[in-house]
Amino acid sequence: MRFFFPIILARWRARLQRALFAALFLCFATVRPAMATDTIVLKNGRRIVALTVVEEGEKVRYQTAAGELVLPKSIVDHIERGPAASMPELRAASASNIAITPPPMEASAEIEKGAVHDGSIDRNYLADVQIEARSGDAAANEKAARALHAASQFELVHGDLEHALTDERTALTFTPENPTILMNVAYLHLKRSEYKASFEYLERARRVVPDDPEVAKLAGWAYYGMNKTDLAVAEWKRALALRPDPEVASALAKAQRDTKEEQNYKENESSHFTLRYSGGAQPELAREILRTLEIHFSAIESELNFTPPDSIGVILYTEQAFADITRAPAWVGALNDGRIRVPVQGLTSLTPELARVLKHELTHSFIQQKTHARAPTWIQEGVAQWMEGQRSKDNASVLVQVYDEKQALALSQLEGSWMRLSSEVAAYAYAWALANIEYIVQADGMGDLERILDRIAEGSSSEGAVQEVLHSNYQDLAQATVNYLRKTYVQ
After folding, report:
1. Distance CA 184, CA 181 (A)
2. Could you give the CA distance from residue 51 to residue 35 in angstroms, rounded to a whole number?
3. What phi-psi label fits residue 267: left (phi over 0), alpha (psi between -120 and 50 degrees) or beta?
4. Tens digit of each residue's pLDDT (9 = 90 or more) over 262-298
5. CA distances from 248 to 94, 102, 125, 131, 212 (A)
6. Cα separation of 11 and 426, whole Å?
7. Is a pLDDT exceeding 50 seen at residue 93?
8. 64-78 tens-digit pLDDT
9. pTM to 2 decimals?
10. H or E segment at 279?
11. Cα–Cα distance between 97 and 411 in angstroms, integer?
């Protein structure tokens, strides 16, 4: 997401210097959605924000936008009741952050208890059931598959997508035509932004259960992630015809807005991008944008040591179409919700500003796929600004002043969506995010940042990843960032 900086920031700095941000923070308090939330605090320090939490015997059930999930009570330290955090982060923005539950599998309490108990996976139990399955007995194979599936679901709940996928794929070796396990493997690939891989498993599931609405639902997300919106629409229509589903209906409505707007758009492709643009745009501009994106792709690929596996969609809009389709606040200058969406009305050639916007939004695509959509907004926006060439010089004195007056926002408050923020608060959030990323990079190069992103991808919380790599919590990082700003920019 790209912020319109020049006018807003000048206005923001003037207001901040006059009133020490008092009015701004009052504004911030009013833009947070009034939605009751609970926070589950695990014994390992991880925090899970949920709409509701219910304790039932040895289990803790909690509701998120992804549906109802369950944790063993033994791994829960305590539950914080009340509005602990803003909730936009619980809504899906792209196929890698899908707001649907994994396809359910009929439970077997005995097997589940054997595979997962006392807050951890029993690997000895898993090894034993896999040895039993070598006999070729169908029941033993089914038992091994169910045990591995239970382990995978436990890992999914804890954000460990890598091991969840490994266990689910191992389960599939024992029951290769089990449609639910096939769909769960596909679901995990979707969560990892691996759309083509996901679709391969969905095709296998469809051969077993051709009329299962879950297959059509997931296939729609796979097509949407591959920038094949018309095919996504067809799959979601099929899913709704088979079974009503509000999540599918919402996804379908969004995709239909896209297809209606883009039905007369032209299309260009390059090695890593599929570009669609209004017939009113200049073809030469489209070609310049593709060339520039490929240059940016190589640069970001080198910096982050990562290559997105699938083609990235890019849409060029008129100003009005951008507003109608994205429904983003007025301060948003471009958007990445799985596809890079940029308004280019009136441009006939690539400008330096547009080149920076493209690099900013492309950085989001890299981080989304590198971290499996787990990176918090402050890291997303901080890294995107750094990559496009922004630095903290012009904002340093104000950021230091806000921090010294104990008015700075904690990074934990900037982890979720910023789409409901006012322009003034958004300006502060962008500047503060950039400052923290700038400090991390300047202190020890891109290596630490890359390692933080890798830890997040592996399932660590954002603050946990920072702690592991920098040996500092959020509070320590904020203090170090202010020290860096003071030393580098403030006289």
Report:
1. 5
2. 8
3. beta
4. 777 778 888 899 888 876 657 888 889 999 999 999 9
5. 13, 14, 38, 40, 14
6. 12
7. no
8. 544 456 777 777 878
9. 0.67
10. none
11. 21
